[in-house]
Design goal:
- This protein is of the alpha+beta class.
- The chain has three domains: about 30-190, no CATH class; about 200-240, no CATH class; about 290-415, Nucleic acid-binding proteins (OB fold (Dihydrolipoamide Acetyltransferase, E2P), Beta Barrel), CATH 2.40.50.
- Helices cover about 35% and strands about 25% of the residues.
- The chain has 14 helices and 13 strands.
- The chain has helices at about 1-40, 100-105, 115-120, 130-135, 140-150, 170-190, 200-210, 215-225, 230-240, 275-280, 295-300, 310-320, 380, 415; strands at about 40-45, 50-55, 60-70, 75-85, 95, 125, 155-160, 160-165, 325-335, 345-355, 365-375, 390-400, 405-410.
- The strands form two sheets. Strands 1-2-3-4-8-7-5-6 form an eight-stranded antiparallel sheet. A five-stranded mixed β-barrel has the order 9-10-11-13-12.
- Helix 7 (about 200-210) packs parallel to helix 9.
- The protein is globular, with a radius of gyration of 27 Å.
- The termini are far apart.
- About 25% of the residues are buried.
Length: about 425
């Protein structure tokens, strides 16, 4: 009987160890897939650790899977360290209030009081320049700070970095969602024009909705419209806050088919001289006509005020499947036998920088096109890295979070002509 119980115990231990190893393997594969989509790097550490590093626009992020505790209290956490640029020059630290902090205050410890009782009771703020901090923490910034502090078991926000610790191992979906929150908070914390602290109309609408003042949201959004904020940005925020539907986009005019000759070749259409004069290109027309205006597409999809899910819906409605004829600086070339976007047909994945979106140049965010090309083009392209090349293809996917546009079935006219 004793031997049987020992056998059961050992079997249970083996099953537990194998299950844990399988779980670690699945988590590592999930992180690898996520890193590949984000353009990040992943490496393994000791004691089951994983680390993912990369850039989000001008900012850098490190994500780690770590173990905490010992024995039966041993558990995994996901740690985010987000370093951002453009914060205020004066230092500060913001974190949740804890029991020990309340006790320290009884013995004379001081923190900065903003004057918002609910915020002061929830948040501990430290900094040498209290008055500047009070002016700096606008309602929009306080709302985003609160959201971040509540999203983990530990959070520290400083003028150039954010530390967030979450229990458990975040999967790819949760990593992307957390990075979106971190980016949103860092964007709100930046000071791009001196010490300007007046929140935008859209920011005030977000604050009003979160504080339950729903009757104020619509008038604030109307104010944003009157101030010239693009309608697509206002409509996206309105949809997020009030649950309204995004406006229908105008239907795209179909392209007229090219006439085909008897031998199957394309030939120019025959038209009278009047029509030819009406459609003749002017001297000022650009030599390279693009099927979609590249900068307009970038500005529309990657507006900082447009939610990622709304950008995806907009892409699917207006741009997916459209042919493009664009140009950009070739940054990276790599072969693939399988790709989550382009499928399992071997090819070459080329990354082009095609533009920037944002405000001031120092805070501009690069937009990239990930282009699917034939496998045999890899050798030629490696010698052209850093050059500006023209490519044509079909828009297949949009990743609004990292500002990537995917172009499939592409070709490079100047290399194939």
């Amino acid at each position: 009987m004793l031997d049987f119980l020992t056998y059961l115990a050992l079997t249970g231990v083996v099953v537990f160890v194998v299950a844990r190893q399988l779980q670690h393997k699945q988590e590592a594969e999930d992180w690898l897939r996520t890193a590949r989509m984000l353009g990040f790097r992943v490496r393994r550490g000791g004691f089951g650790g994983l680390m993912m590093t990369g850039s989000v626009g001008p900012d850098s992020v490190q994500i780690r899977r770590e173990t905490r505790g010992a024995g039966k209290h041993r558990h995994y956490v996901t740690v985010y360290r987000f370093s951002y640029r453009g914060g205020p020059r004066f230092g500060f630290e913001i974190r949740p209030q804890g029991v020990w902090d309340n006790l320290k205050q009884l013995f004379g410890a001081r923190d900065v009081q903003i004057g918002d009782r609910s915020f002061d009771n929830e948040v501990l703020i430290r900094g040498a320049r209290a008055r500047r901090l009070i002016e700096y923490l606008t309602p929009e910034r306080k709302a985003r700070v609160r959201q971040m502090l509540r999203s983990g078991t530990k959070c520290e926000i400083r003028n150039s970095s954010i530390l967030l610790v979450r229990n458990g191992v975040d999967d790819g979906h949760e990593i992307r969602r957390t990075l979106a929150r971190l980016r949103g908070l860092s964007d709100a914390l930046r000071v791009e024009h001196g010490d300007e602290t007046e929140p935008s109309a859209l920011g005030r609408a977000v604050v009003a909705q979160r504080e339950g003042r729903l009757e104020e949201v619509k008038p604030i959004l109307d104010e944003a419209r009157q101030a010239g904020t693009p309608e697509i940005e206002v409509a996206a925020v309105e949809s997020e806050l009030l649950g309204t539907a995004l406006p229908d986009l105008p239907e795209l005019e179909p392209l007229a088919p090219e006439p085909v000759g008897e031998d199957g070749s394309h030939e120019p259409a025959v038209a009278d001289s009047t029509a030819a004069e009406q459609h003749a290109p002017s001297d000022s027309a650009p030599a390279e006509q693009e099927s979609l205006d590249k900068q307009t597409v970038c500005d529309t999809l990657f507006s900082p005020r447009l939610m990622s899910r709304d950008a995806q819906a907009l892409f699917e409605t207006s741009y997916e499947g459209r042919e493009v004829d664009w140009a950009g600086e070739l940054k990276r070339v790599e072969p693939f036998s399988f790709d989550l976007v382009f499928g399992d047909q071997a090819g070459t994945r080329a990354t082009f920088e095609i533009g920037e979106v944002g405000g001031e140049l120092v805070f501009a965010r690069t937009v990239q096109a990930i282009v699917q090309l034939p496998a045999e083009s890899q050798a030629v392209l490696r010698a052209r890295i850093g050059e500006r090349l023209r490519f044509t293809g079909r828009l297949t996917r949009c990743d609004a979070f990292v500002r990537n546009l995917y172009v499939s079935d592409a070709r490079l006219p100047e290399l194939t002509s």
